[in-house]
Amino acid sequence: MHTPLLYKDKPLFAIDIGHSTVKVVQLQRDKTGIRVIGYGYADFDPSAVEKGVITKPDLLVKALKPLLKQVVIGELTTDRAVVAIPTAHIFTRVITLPTIENTDLETAVELEADQYVPLPAEEVHLDYTVTSESTDEHPETMVLMVAAPKKIVASYIDLLDQLDLEVYAMEPSLFAIMRAVNHARANSSPKVVIDFGSESSDLAIYDGNVQLTSTITTGGMHISRQIAETLNIEAHQAEDIMSRVGIKKSKWQEQLAPALAPILSRLADEVQKMLRYHHDHTNFDQPIEEIVIVGGGANLPGLSDFLAHLTGLAVSTCDPWQNLNIAPLQPPHQLETTLYTTAVGLALKEMES
């Protein structure tokens, strides 16, 4: 095949569809490093998505069309998109297999999927990647398996078709987050990463590879609802209290602390469970000493201190814009930085090629 000497592959931009906001980011490598050339977000009616499936694409089209052309800060220079599929609605599992030939690996993963994926094989797209090769000392192969329901994937493809966009790739949102954390922190020490979202929280143990994943139905929406119920106030007032004071000390603490503790304790309990499993089922000797929180709820006041107290680990947030050159564009508001973690991680996929 003839390859033109001056051929340049088409760039891409990232689309991250959350509970009620859609984010876009485009990056470009230049002599200064990696530069942000366009980004932005738009709100949409959350009824557009049900259990990960885009059931009302017209509502997302209505939000995305002006975002892509007018609302975006900077510009998007391509119609080729990489899209995040919500981790909460797909099936991921790190599996340990005995040393086998590469030709038999796919069959072995399919057999494992039959055990762990609660859907018929014909209803999912199955993929996997080897995260740890077998050695003489540890004659096992670690494989990260992903199974995405076909109806979710099809609904995303349909949306992009309606927007006249080309699909470059789809990947679980958690994988994009790991890429963003890795780029921002440049630190290979093992850590627990928590994507604290609106409806749920995705967790992973990450040491350069994803070693363990989990999802729990604890998110900002549950905290907001509990605040509204406890204080007998309107939803918008609860949202305001959550964003301003969160779970820090405040005049409402005596009422809110006992009401919110069970919700947030589930998050801490899941971290402890993952740490125990990782300790008992892996050969990795370096201890996990850090939790990194990302996502739209990462800036919840008091969350870091609460998790640090219950887990005994250092807790911090990750700024996905770190190590990116955003000038001369206006940077996002401080409270919005973590909102873009998944989109930035998706956009960084282009830098891998």
Your description of this structure?
- This protein has a six-stranded mixed β-sheet with strand order 6-3-2-1-7-11, with helices on both faces. It has a five-stranded mixed β-sheet with strand order 14-13-12-15-16, with helices on both faces. The protein has a three-stranded antiparallel β-sheet with strand order 8-10-9.
- It is 36% helix and 28% strand.
- The chain starts with 12 loop residues before the first strand and ends with a helix.
- The chain has ten helices and 16 strands.
- With 353 residues, it is α/β, with parallel strands linked by helices.
In a nutshell, what does this entry contain?
The protein has 353 residues and is of the alpha/beta class. It has ten helices and 16 strands.
